[in-house]
Amino acid sequence: MAFSSADNDDVLSEINITPLVDVMLVLLVAFIVTAPLLNNAVHVNLPKTVATAAADTRAPVTVSVDARGAIWIDKRATDLARIPAELAALKAQRPDVALNLQADEGVPYGSVAKLMAAIEHAGITRLSVLTANNG
């Protein structure tokens, strides 16, 4: 805090930033404490109902990539070069075909991205990416 002496009548024009720093630190701590509590998840308890039949009785086609990078369509081995033609034929047979994509966690992302691009290029819009359940 700045004090002026009695013999000096000049106006003291220094800004004391200590209160400003104190307020900013309190705000920073408040944001740090509350930030983890803010999430976008909406917790909803869904009602229990009677089980109904699925609208699409045909099972989705599963496209898999194993740990070695081999590609499988419903347990039938294929390679990336033949994927576009096979998926286009599948789309011609079933225009509303749904795909389940599952890839081993050790597979490089580039291989999976190329496969997803081939799926999109074939015109298949119903794609589910399957993951393991931790719980």
TrEMBL record:
Keywords: Cell inner membrane, Cell membrane, Membrane, Protein transport, Transmembrane, Transmembrane helix, Transport
Pfam families, sorted: ExbD (PF02472)
Superkingdom, natural source: Bacteria
Compartments, as annotated in UniProt: Cell inner membrane; Cell membrane
Record membrane topology: Single-pass type II membrane protein
UniProt keyword Membrane present: yes
Gene Ontology terms, MF aspect: transmembrane transporter activity
Cellular component, GO, one term: plasma membrane
Signal peptide range: none
Quaternary structure, from the entry: The accessory proteins ExbB and ExbD seem to form a complex with TonB.
Name the record gives this protein: Biopolymer transporter ExbD
